[in-house]
Amino acid sequence: MEAGLLDSRKLRAQAWFEALRNDICAAFESLEDALPAGAGLADRAAGRFVRTPWNRTDHTGAPGGGGVMSMMKGRVFEKVGVHISTVFGEFAPEFRKEIPGATTDPHFWASGISLIAHLQNPHVPAVHMNTRFVATTKAWFGGGADLTPLLGRRRTQSDPDTVAFHAAMKQACDAHAKVAPYDRFKTWCDEYFYLKHRKEMRGIGGIFYDYLESGDWDADFAFTQDVGRAFARIYPELVRKNFATPWSESEREEQLVRRGRYVEFNLLYDRGTIFGLRTGGNVDSILSSLPPVVKWP
Fold first, then answer.
1. According to the model, what pLDDT value does residue 63 have?
2. Torsion of CA 37, 39, 40, 42, to 10 degrees
């Protein structure tokens, strides 16, 4: 690919991830403001995001880009991170064979957005979303979004929140059916977010895709943008629907126990966590996906 064209595509992707970050942060802060009086922790001040830039070096010690952490703790969101990063450099030798296109040339460039939200109210599902553009000697998109209800009666495929979330992800795929087969991406998500040691899924799924390089970059990018738009539309709706529902101590206990599954998956299996740590990413940003309070009874 012509260098100038690739550089232009990198800038377009990076600008999109930053714009999406801004839109999501604004929507989440609006939810903090909207919590009705008398609901849950409404007597607390509404949360606001704190943005913290960071920089990295690659394994050779050369400058390697960085990113911005956006963290918020509030009365609706117990802990939420919406992070962007644009990193580059060389993959360490032991890591190159695992990345398409890196065995012949170890240089890479990657930009993306990564989000994880843990809510105060056990009735509101936790959520994860990330999308990214990666360039080695190849160039591809990856990402997805998945939902994790914390209460057992909500962890079903017939639950209204589950139905709505899957419908939003399907709509994003169906609008780009030539490059984004929904059934394949849904199955990929189910298989990816599976806790092998417990023989159970982490949540109720969503979509997951990687190495998306259809030959039509604009189509792949448009789909990746629509995944972000679909998430930014549906998840605030689910939060608003549930954030004033009263909860009991037993439901809070169940929430904290189920959060343990998040910790187990992210530390044992998550490729994004492994990629970030092995490429010298910001540890605080990478591990911000972990819930603030969790129990293993």
1. 92
2. -10
Which of 168, 177, 176 has the alpha carbon at shortest distance from 146? Answer: 168
> What tens digit of pLDDT does each residue of 167-225 get?
999 999 999 999 999 999 999 999 999 999 999 999 999 999 999 999 999 999 999 99
Rounded Cα distance, 157 and 146, in Å: 13
pLDDT tens string 89-101: 988 887 788 888 9
Give CA angle at 144 (201, 12), nearest 5°. 165
Dist CA 96 CA 239 (whole Å): 40
| Cα–Cα dist 64/83, whole Å | 17
Q: Is 56 helix (H, G, I), strand (E, B) or coil?
A: strand
Torsion angle of C-alpha atoms 27, 79, 117, 77, degrees rounded to 10: -50
Q: Which tokens hold the place of 296?
A: 């293993």
Token look-up 């997805």 returns 144
Q: Cβ(40)–Cβ(124) under 8 Å?
A: no
Q: Is the pTM of this model over 0.90?
A: yes
- Please report which helix (H) or strand (E) contains residue 32, including its range: helix 3-34
Confidence of residue 278 (pLDDT cuts 50, 70, 90): confident
Is there a catalytic annotation at residue 123? no
Q: Across the strands, what pairs with 110?
A: 87, 134
- Considering the candidates 83, 118, 123, 128, report the single residue annotated as catalytic: 128
Query: What angle (nearest 5°) sits at the alpha carbon of residue 17, between those of residues 13 and 19?
Result: 115
- Convert the pLDDT of each residue in 127-152 to its tens digit: 999 999 999 999 999 999 999 999 99
State the CB neighbour count (10 A cutoff) for residue 191.
11
CA-to-CA separations, 23 to 7, 27, 98, 124, 234, in angstroms, rounded: 25, 6, 33, 20, 13
Token reading at 70:
């956006």
By percentage, how much of the chain surpasses pLDDT 90? 84
